[in-house]
Amino acid sequence: INLRTVYAFAREMYPKISTEYVQYGTAGFRGKAEFLDSVMFRMGVLATLRSRYRGGAVIGVMITASHNPEPDNGVKLVDPKGEMLDASWESIATDLVNVSDQELEQHVAKIIKDNNIDITSSSHVFVGMDNRYHSPRLLKAVADGVIALKGNVREFGIVTTPMLHFFVVAANTKEAYGKPTEEAYYEKLIGAFESLRNGQLENGNYKNNVVFDGANGVGARKMLQFIKRMNKSLNISVINQGIGPGKINDECGADYVKVQQRPPISMPIVEPFTRCVSVDGDADRVVYFFTNDKGEFQLLDGDRIATLVAGYLMDLVTRSEIDLRLGLVQTAYANGASTDYIVNELKFPVSCVPTGVKHLHHKALEYDIGVYFEANGHGTIVFSDHAKATIATASETKDSAKTLLLLIDLINETVGDAISDMLLVETILNHKGWDVKDWISTYNDLPNRQLKIKVQDRNVIETTNAERDCVKPEGLQTEINKVVSNYKRGRSFVRPSGTEDIVRVYAEAATKEDTENLAYEVGVLVQ
Ligand code: NG1
Ligand code: ZN
């Protein structure tokens, strides 16, 4: 393989047009789409090298900017088991993207040498994209990066982020997970969902209807595909389908609903207490919401989903008379009331880790059954091999264990999957005979508020203790503590965003007014 080709491709087709330093962050590279062509090309190169480094295993490349606005795009790599790119390669990615076109050839040669990569061995890269209008152009750049190194590339077109993760795992584990196709994905999830329903479509307070806000993203398209294949096991009406003038994530979708604490702008009038679901632009996050009979908006976020799932799993494990270690993982953004509920009522072990699913996922793997969710609705459940084997054995005699076995099939363990998570919530509510009133009455959320603060250099803020305490700039935490101590049930923290050029402020307190004031006061300290 002649590395000159890489340089020639880069120079002719994907020249680097910005010298701004970019970093492979919690969600890979993100930015304005017009600056991403060279980044994408180089990520195609890197994915091929990573595949060869991993003995020819399939590596995934997902093109999306998730919940960010339509003009943005981004790219993240998926490792062979469906997990995020290994941390040790994040810096390799960062360096590769920042070298000049002239240095590129030599730099690629250095990566090959440093990592002992056999450049003639076979490689496989799967590429998927969201439905942003610039995604196809960027997908071609990734594919050309693969081709420049004579690798194999398979394009999946428009898919959700969790679908791409599914394809990567399926291809690498062969029969264990099903085929790496869209059809196999639908079959696996719908099959498990319909078996779990077992013909019982309504139960107690549970009604069989939901409104699904697709954020004008790929989640909407895929949900329409689900509906086509489901035997009316759930009546889903899809809004923000991505046809017409609506822009991706614009005044709709999970991030908008969670942060603004209101329904999508385009919300049709529905009966009070109708279950509504919002996903984000690449369908890896999900939140529920409804309007009560006073017309008030009520949110059921990632913390609610986590507590619902954790309680249900614990119940099934107890009834199956098996001994497994269960645990729940949250971040500092988890509502304090949810943590109290988990610790005091569910008596479930909880841990807090820094923001970003890779931290949550990693921690969750320490348990036999690890439930993890970010408050924004990004999360899943992971089962250890020991847990799977124990459940399988118990399922021969116990119905509760049979249910657990089907739940494992319904869950996309590799990464948070909005559609799989939604089907899981629907299953649990159905089994419990619950409507949203029953669900929300388990505990009362503390009022909470997030602010984005523009600062000159967000990295002057450094945190510790799972981002709950600020160590730099010196003295800031003492001042925050002083402010917080004036508020009943007050809690607040600040951290630099990993995906936007801002500092985030989080505040919660006993009343809405206190929360607003606390957020404002802490925001002033940061500015
Ligand atoms: P940053 O920008 O680092 O706060 C945001 C979300 C994360 C995660 C990433 C990746 C919040 C407060 N932060 O990270 O949870 O989803 O984006 O998409 O929601
Ligand atoms: Zn997302």
Which segments are poorly predicted (pLDDT under 50) over 5 or more consecutive residues?
none
Strand content: 15-25%
Largest sheet: 5 strands, mixed
SS class: alpha/beta
Number of domains: 4
CATH superfamily of the largest domain: Alpha-D-Glucose-1,6-Bisphosphate, subunit A, domain 3
Kindly report the average pLDDT value: 95
Cross-sheet strand order for the largest sheet = 1-3-2-4-5
Number of helices: 18
CATH topology of the largest domain: Alpha-D-Glucose-1,6-Bisphosphate, Chain A, domain 3
| CATH architectural grouping of the largest domain | 3-Layer(aba) Sandwich
Distance between the termini: 52 Å
Number of E-state strands = 19
Can you list the ligands bound to this structure?
Answer: 2-acetamido-2-deoxy-1-O-phosphono-alpha-D-galactopyranose, zinc ion
CATH class of the largest domain: Alpha Beta
Using only C-alpha atoms, the radius of gyration works out to: 23 Å
Active site: 66 (phosphoserine intermediate)
Function: Catalyzes the conversion of GlcNAc-6-P into GlcNAc-1-P during the synthesis of uridine diphosphate/UDP-GlcNAc, a sugar nucleotide critical to multiple glycosylation pathways including protein N- and O-glycosylation.
Binding site for substrate: 374-376, 495-499, 504
Domain Phosphoacetylglucosamine mutase AMG1: 181-287, 301-434
Index terms:
binds zinc ion, Alpha-D-Glucose-1,6-Bisphosphate, Chain A, domain 3, 527 residues, five-stranded mixed β-sheet, binds 2-acetamido-2-deoxy-1-O-phosphono-alpha-D-galactopyranose, 42% helix, alpha/beta, globular, 18% strand
